Amino acid sequence: QMTQEQCSHRNNVQSSDKPQIYKVGIYGWRKRCLYFFVLLLMILILINLALTIWILKVMNFTIVSTTSALM
Known about the structure:
Blueprint: H1 4-16, H2 29-58
């Protein structure tokens, strides 16, 4: 069990320190890696969309079905 003296000393140690300032966010190499991965993901999405549209055009897919051509 702690005495009153120890409790007050413990509180004084914590309060006498200057308040700590926590940086919120990502800094340094982690930030660069995050930006790199986001950029890479955006490039892959654009390539994927471009290839999808190109395949749809090359294969002559249309919204209206052309089943009448088979008859």
